[in-house]
Amino acid sequence: MPRFIDIANDSGSNDDHQSFYSWRWLNSRANGQKLQKWPEHIYWGSEIREDPPIANYDEIMNSDEGVKHWTDLLQSHGFTYVDSCPVTTSATKSLLERIAFIKPTHYGGFWDFTSDLSLKDTAYTSLALGAHTDTTYFSEPAGLQMFHLLSHTEGEGGASLLVDGFRAANVLEQKFPEAFKILSTFKISSHASGNDGIHLRPDVDRPVLNIVSPDASLSEQMVYQVRWNNDDRAVLPANSAGRPSDVSVDAWYDAARKWVDILRSGESEYWEQLRPGRALIFDNWRVLHGRSAFTGKRRMCGGYINHDDYMSRWRTLNVSPEELSLTV
What we know:
Largest sheet: 6 strands, mixed
Shape: globular
Radius of gyration: 22 Å
Number of strands: 14
Strand content: 15-25%
Order of helices and strands: EEHEHHEHEEEEHHEEHEEEEHH
Structural class: alpha+beta
């Protein structure tokens, strides 16, 4: 049996175009299946402190093989450090752009900031921040986020907090399946409206835990996106038109308390002090972040990358063209 079909152009044009279809691709379409390649996720908790995923700046900047390794770590763990990064904004920006272009927001593109209350966001203060994901008020939240601490003078504190949201969702589903169901079906809204001339909210409301249903390429449902930022959450709908008819607002709050208890548990929280020369990048759809309060003056730089652009970079570096053709 031939391994492919090669169809010559018979439309009358003279461009000599030919279409090539492998039997494997044709068979997947005949069965109505896309052979989606789902990345493998390694869940982690506080124990990741002993062996966190680390990539090297020079390897990333000098070859796509380095970017391949870097993005593969991001896929498996949801975050990585990049060691030996020059302590400059230009080097950090170039590092981030090895994945894709930087996503601009109402805060700008690439950031270089210190504490600044005029920006009307708790991220720009010295206050402690609980575990959260960013830009829940966007229809599509930012995909990747990078932080690089350039300096911290005349003070202390400011340890960074990371929590594996996929692991936390798995724990919630195993221990409190009804709470998991509520947080994956009850749609809520978020907003950003503290700055003059800015009022951001998603095009439609979405749940805290967004899932992919099982299909031919996935044996069981899978959380693909966590949207949790209690500081940006809007008012919950009081009537059933905005929520599952069998779920009360009180039930949502009870489920949310169980979720927060898991996020705040010692098994979930990974604390680490950032330092100049070690950039941190994480998947904002998976990993929640926060920090302890600090004193003194910290200078931080970083930026966002769109999720689609990040995934495109990972696929083209880690999946063969033949395998990719089976996913479209």
